[in-house]
Model the fold of this input.
Amino acid sequence: MSKLIGDRKFYRMVLTVTIPIVIQNGITNFVSLLDNIMVGTLGTEPMSGVSIVNQLLFVFNLLIFGAISAAGIFMSQFHGKGDDEGEMHTFRFKVIIALLATFAGLAVFRFGGTALINQFLHDGSIEGDLALTLALGEEYLKLMMLGLIPYTVAQIYASSLRETGQTVVPMLASLAAVLVNCGLNAVLIFGLFGAPALGVKGAAIATVTSRVVELIAVVLYTHLSRAKHGFIRGAYRSFRIPRALVSQVVAKGLPLMANEFFWASAVTMVSRCYSLRGLDVVAASNIASTVTQFFNIVYMSLATAIAIVVGNLLGAGHLEEAVDTDRKMIAFSVACSVGIGALLLALSPLFPQIYNTTDEVRSLAAYMIGVYGILMPFASYACSAYFTLRSGGRVLITFVFDSIFMWALTVPLAFLLTGYTSLSIYWIFPICQGMDVVKCILGYGMLRQKTWVRRLVVDDSSVTEKT
Done:
């Protein structure tokens, strides 16, 4: 037990890093929950249309996360080493690769958005108008595309600030954005204070506006306090990056970026399999996942903190301390998830009652929320294991652990159960979500091997050779 439990100083350090991330993610997810409830009051079709588009945007968001995180591994270790020039070159790489990914995403949504939304619309129940759901989804997607570039640039800056030890400012920027989003949602969805009641369109306009607000906040802070942030000083004088660093980040980054894309695609594919059972399943899954995401913020934030803290220790060469810290942080995350999962299970019947939908959808959503609550400790361990492997740059292993696992096991299982059996969704859902237990066993074996314990930023030539 002494290897799993830290002292007071240890938990003070963990909470100092984690609490701002928890607050930022908590505010964001709470407002997402409010958004979802507001749209949910419009009926099953608006809620389902928005939910389907958000599934597609989830893939895009994870693609951007992967593009930025690849360089973030090096940013964190350069900061631990005290190398400002290395931080600056890493920031340049983030800008280039993330914007290229954004333009690719815009092209896909522009020319293939309708076809993608249609993949989730199936006659499997008596609930819902599929044509109306498609029209509302198309309207929502067109407006949401306007916010993709502001979202990407804000994430580039916010992630760089977090990786260099500044977690409070991204939190405050996120707070400002979500307050704007929440206020505009209420005004534009329902037509308060004399504004037109725009429904789904109003929800999209509010979200895009909030992303612009977040962008302005993080960019202004970073450039006005450039003396404190080595990564921004001289970042835009040119876009030259050391050849050795490009090679290293690409070698680590492409598998990581591919992993985030294929993992998100796999999650979306599983949701698409569930949708074969009808629009009521789409609506229930949307309610359950939105509620659960709010409760997931603690273990997700702790996993992010693992990547930052362990990455800094590895970059500074404190390898044994990194192993000990990682073990204790994972144990803390799982312990927190046991309590939070139990709370989610207890509250699972209450949340669906808020939505303007059918009793069948509410009942199924409550059941799904309960399943998520029971499995939360396993999801916590799997997530922590992923971020641990990533902190040491073991991107090929993380690709196997995340994407290959999903596409080789979970997706085929969901496809077979929904397409070739008569099992109820009440059986299919826990079976598929229960694959997290298998993933935990795999993650435990990978962590015990300690192949992730390595320092990536030792050679100073990586920041002097130009290309």
Summary: DSSP finds 15 helices and no strands in the chain. The chain has one domain: 8-463. The longest helix spans residues 44-81. Residues 8-463 form one domain.
